[in-house]
User: Which sequence fits this backbone?
């Protein structure tokens, strides 16, 4: 199997408030131009604000369990995955990937999946896709430019980090996963990525040219975790 580039596409880019059609058009054009160069892609979609809105709404109505919130989150990521799959038309495999441990025959240059199972985010699905397609790199796209040494929304003095080891990165984030956790790359997925020797790049999906630079091996803005 040819090496596949894994992209974890944050829900914050797909639906920040409304569906971001301008971004998605640019993303589609870039990925298809890379496909023309012979590259293959496995794209995992997150739930983002849509997921959090459903979770918050549920909490206002009933006392829901973490398991129920988790399944709701998985459903939102799969809805986003179906949406993105349709955007890529006949270049994408005709079904979304529900289980990243079972990879279909890559007879299409693009496969797309969402969340997978309880206890982790779509980041974990990205790690399993990387493991099972032979990829050693995951590009994690969100609305965040870098990993910071503290939350820049709370601490205006937070410092950006351009390169960090898995060991040091995992000290910066919570140890446990919970639905709706806002972390550049979730704790469970981070542990497995470290064990599998997978590099993760945290970067903003905008402007789209920054992703192009990353894919073309040029200098880009973002954080490399390895």
Assistant:
């Amino acid at each position: 199997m040819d090496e596949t580039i894994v992209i974890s596409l944050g829900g914050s880019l797909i639906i920040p408030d409304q569906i971001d059609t301008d971004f998605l058009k640019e993303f589609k054009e870039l990925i298809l131009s890379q496909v023309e160069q012979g590259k293959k892609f496995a794209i995992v979609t997150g739930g983002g604000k849509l997921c959090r809105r459903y979770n918050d709404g549920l909490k206002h109505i009933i006392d829901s369990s973490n398991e129920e919130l988790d399944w709701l989150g998985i459903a939102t990521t799969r809805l986003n995955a179906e949406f993105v799959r349709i955007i890529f038309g006949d270049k994408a495999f005709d079904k979304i990937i529900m289980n990243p441990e079972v990879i279909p025959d890559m007879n299409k240059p693009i496969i797309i999946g969402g969340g997978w199972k309880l206890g982790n985010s779509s980041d974990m699905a990205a790690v399993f896709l990387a493991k099972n397609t032979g990829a050693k790199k995951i590009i994690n796209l969100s609305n965040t430019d870098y990993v910071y040494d503290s939350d820049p929304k709370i601490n205006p003095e937070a410092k950006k980090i351009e390169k960090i080891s898995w060991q040091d990165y995992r000290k910066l984030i919570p140890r446990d996963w919970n639905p709706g956790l806002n972390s550049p790359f979730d704790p469970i997925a981070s542990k497995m990525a470290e064990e599998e020797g997978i590099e993760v790049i945290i970067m903003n999906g905008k402007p789209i040219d920054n992703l192009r630079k990353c894919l073309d091996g040029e200098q880009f803005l973002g954080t490399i975790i390895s």
Notes: The first strand starts at residue 4 and ends at 9.
